[in-house]
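In response to reviewer comment 3 from the previous cycle, which asked for concrete evidence that the modeling workflow produces usable outputs, we include below a single protein chain processed end to end. The sequence was submitted unchanged, and the resulting structure tokens are shown without manual editing.
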Amino acid sequence: MGFFWTCVALVVALGLTWRFLGSYMVGVYEGRVRWMWWLERPIYRLLGTDPDTEQSWKRYAASVVWFSGFSFLATYAILRLQGHIGLWNPLHFGSVGPALSWNTSASFLTNTNWQNYGGETTMSYFSQMTALTVQQFVTPAVGMAAAVALVRGFSRKNSSTIGNFWVDLTRSLLYVLLPMAFIGGVIFVGQGAVQTLGGPAHIHNVLNGVTQIIALGPIGFMEAIKQLGTNGGGFLNANSATTFENPTGFTNFLSIYLLLAIPFALTYVFGKMVGSVRQGVAVLSAMVIIFAVWVGFTSYAEHQNNPAVAAAGVHSQPTGNTVGKEVRFGDTSTALFGVASTNTSTGSADASYDSFTALGGFGLMTGMMLGEVTPGGVGSGMYTILIYAVIAVFIGGLMIGRTPEYLGKKIQAREVKLAGLGALVMPIIVLVFTGIAVSIHAGRAGPLNAGPHGFSEILYALTSQGNNNGSAFGGLTGNTTFYNVIGGVDMLLGRFAIMIPALALGGALAAKNVVPESLGTFRTDNGMFVGLLIGVIIIIGGLTFFPAVSLGPLVEQFTHHFF
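The workflow returned the following structure tokens.
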């Protein structure tokens, strides 16, 4: 299937998903979908929570922190004790070191799935399944819960509660993630993805007497939740570029579809829960427009010949930059996968992003710098773009000279401060940590390349982790004490320093009354608001990071063409 028809099929599939999955998810969070009540009730009893009792934003946030802290400790303990756990460890891997365990635990806790290790050479099957794959289920569920809690802040009035975290978490898992991941996993395995607990294959070459070990494992079902939950962490180091994880062109298309499905569908959930689907369409439109522009730009950049290959005197290269790519996917479809991955905080890869052209890498990197809202991660993209929407409404209110309102809620000093904090924390931590990394020897020792591309490797890595994306250029040696520690802090702040202000914003909005609409009300369901929202996203992400990207991919591009 060509690139054009791939895009058409993707638009049709996502359009149907937006409507029907979105409607289904509204029923889930409103308690009308209960076909797994027989399993839901025992979980509440085990957790000791009353599903009919709701929480204030502070108790909701405290539940998020408590659950996340427990998850972090459990993951860290499994990795550190891996060498002493004999179950499902056919290659007898030892315990994971403390710095790498810290980074990996923070990574999978925050839905980042950044990997400073090769899965097939570091992790036992037990660690992959009980620590990492479990986190790939629960962390997107936490993001979905936080998004729905913020949406309730807009939909309610004079309320002191925004829902029950334990109920939202359980329903996200039981009714959305588990069924969809199971169906996706069956398809992946049916297409040829590996799924076994039988250990690796040992191949003996009779010609040279060498025995080769081919890593196998429970890969297929992990692949489904990897994409569906916008996780990105693969069982194998080569991720979706290997046929064991991504065997066919159809699974490549399915991967792109899965990682976009829930983030886009949540805009329908938002519209229905606030009582106006047009409001959801406005947010969706901003996401789609930016996403489409980034796909077009990056695909065009990758369809150009590789300047380094041309400089080496090879003038018969095929059209497009095929270096580091799977020929079964091609340059433009690979670019589509890369943009979908980096714009959804997924981080999975079906190619080497380090081998993209300078402008192709620029497209991947800047997609993350916009704040992962186009459409962003599962749940996190929704609550982050609503933070941008509050800022856009505030600016719009200033333009018309009246108190800003969004969905009938007055946006006052507290709301603007919370939204500003949520929008600016990511650029601050990424740029500060990048500055530290390039200023000390431990940071400068990481990049494989010198010059602007080496700087891009550092900037990309810390941008990826700060945005909970998880993809990498691939040229950075990240498994060092410095990058493991700073990366873990980067990921934790990138997750919770945005999520908690979002929950506080939801609580502040839920407590407000609804202001009746008037002739002076700034409309937020039309093209003008969509344009304003896009402008806010581009300005905060684009202008904040422009000096940094000017030193990396832009300088590299100019170097290829003018020197």
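The longest helix spans residues 125-155. We consider this sufficient to address the reviewer's concern, and the full set will be provided in the supplementary archive.
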